[in-house]
Structures are given as structure tokens and as C-alpha cells.
Amino acid sequence: MRKLFVTMFALLAVGMASAQDEVIAKFNEAAAAVNKKDFNTAITLLENVIEKGATSQDNAVLNCVATAKKYLPACYQGVGVSAASQKNYEKAIEYLTKAANTAELYGNTSAQQRANHVLAKVYQVQGAEAFNAKDWAKAAEVFEKGYAANPRNADMAVNLATCYCELGKYEEGIAIYEKVCAMPAEKYAEQIAKAQTNKALYTNNKVATLQKEGDQDGIIAMADKLQATSPALAEKLRIEAYYAKRDYAKVIASEEAAVAAQTTDEERSAIYYYVGAAYNVQYNATGNKNEFLREKAVAALKKVTAGKNVEAAKKALADLLKK
Is 16 among the domain residues? Predict the structure, then answer.
């Protein structure tokens, strides 16, 4: 009995050694395939190494498994990039998604980011045809996936925001434009400029439509929806609407919050102009007798130093100082 037990133990040890040798051999084959950029073959071998060696207690095998987990996402990415170069976007997306997911599974953050960056670019290219054809719904569907993969792809973010605005999803579009504008200016200057231009364009179009309908309350409601994502724009729109409604008390009451929300001298000057004009109207309504209102109007208008209202502010100031 003891001899039989020893014999069985010996057979088991041989089997274990054979399994370890097999995993190491598969790993070496995978390494050779990676060096040749034969990523499809490498993927099969690396997956096999991970599956067969995961429960091993042999350090050499465990090292092979750890290295396989490191290189498997890169191999998926290699297949994805190759497919993208052949304009096989479905396959590219499939393998780049596998690359990102596998990297996340194995805690490889840098590999996950690399895969997602490439994945986003593939979505960007895939959606470009629909975008250029002004098929906003189809383009948005593609760009949404790319934006989810990499929100730092500023070009695609601008395109997605444009799709939303064209589809009537104004608040969603402006929210993305705002995020682009918040990116580092030294790296994304071109995209920020485009986002600012488009934000102004779509805002002006929407405001013009509401103004044509005489719907100042609609503009105020629009500002309320924008408050969380675009406070500077929201405050500016709101104060302009109050002024158009001749609700000068609300214009004046909104000054502090509106000025605080702005980020440029031009934007702050726009707020001060409306506040100064509101005080001026109230001063005129007293028959030019309330010196407090006059001083407030002068103080606000003197702060109009940039933007399109500078000349109008100077003229109003000159008139006030004569009185």
C-alpha cells in the first residue's frame, strides 16, 4: 500500500510539473507572437496562460500569468487599431472595448486609458460621416459612446455638443461646451474658441426666437435650466430678460450674483451696463431728483470697460454727469 501511494504521488508530481511547463511554454509562444505583432495568436495564448496558470503555486508560472495580464489588453488594442486602419470600425470597437475592460479587470489603469483614448478616436472617425451630412441624431449616437470613453477628446466633445444643439437639446449641448471651455487653455485653445463661438451662436438663436415671440419669461426659464451647468450665462440671460421686461428692481437685485458668476471683463461689463441703465431709468422716473439713484447709475456705468456696451455707457455717463 505504501509503495502504491508513493507511486501515485510521483505521478501527480510529474503531472504538476508537466502543467507548469505547458503554461511557461505557452507564455513563451505568446511572447514570440507579440514580438511579431501577431496579436490574434498572442491573445489566444495569453488567455490560455491566464486560465491554466491562475491557480498555480509555482512562482515562475505566476510571473507568467501576471505578465500575460499586463500584455493582453495591449494585444486586444493591437487588433483594434489594425481593424480601424482597415475601416472595420465594428471590429475595432469590439477589440478596443475588450482592451479597456480587460485592463480595468486587471487593475491596469494606464492601459485602460490608452485603450479608451483610441476607442474614442475610432468613434470620432465613425461619426464624422453622419456629422458632415448633418445627420445629427446618428452622429450624436456615435459621439456619445466616444465621449463616454474619453471626455477629454475636445474635438469630439464640441461635435457632440453641436449635435445636441441642432437636435433642440440646447441645455445638454451648452453643458458640454462649458466643459470644453473649462479645459486647460494652453492645450485646447482652438477647441475652446470653437466651443465659445458655438455656445454664443446657439444661445443667440434660442434667445432671438423667444424674443421674437415676446417671451421674456421663457428666457428666464431657460436661464434657470442653465444655472447649474452654466451659471455665468444663466445670470447674464436672466438680467437681460428682466431689463427687457422693465423689471428694473430685479435687474438691480441681481447685480451681485450676476457679476460674481462672470469670468471675463467683457461679461462683467455687460452686467454693469444693465445695472447702470436700470438705475438710470429709475433716476429719470424721479424727475432727476434722487441723487442716490444717480450715484448708483454712475458707479455702475463707470465699470463698463470692455465689450460692445462701452460707447453706450460713456454716453449715458456723460448725460448723467451733466445733470
Answer: yes
CA distance 208 to 70: 55
Q: How many domains does the chain have?
A: 1
pLDDT given for residue 117 in this prediction: 97
In a domain, 185, yes or no: no
Q: What one-letter code names the amino acid at 236?
A: K
pLDDT of the residue at 8: 38
> How far is CA 199 from its chain centroid?
15
Q: Over the stretch 138-158, which tens digit does the pLDDT of each residue have? A: 999 999 999 999 999 999 999
Q: What is the pLDDT of residue 13?
A: 38
Per-residue confidence (pLDDT) for residue 18, from 0 to 100: 67
Q: End-to-end CA distance of the chain: give it in Å, rounded.
A: 121
**Residues spanned by the domain of 10:** 1-107
**Given this model, what pLDDT does residue 186 score?**
94
Closest among 66, 67, 59, 56 to 34, alpha carbons compared? 67
List, in order, residues 6 or more apart from 306 with CB less than 8 Å away: 264, 265, 266, 269
Residue 135 lies in a domain: no
Q: Is residue 311 part of a domain?
A: no
Choose among 307, 242, 227, 226: nearest CA to 268: 307
Contacts of 97 (CB under 8 A, 6+ apart): 115, 119
Q: What is the CA radius of gyration of the chain?
A: 32
Q: Which residues of the chain have pLDDT under 70?
A: 1-19, 323
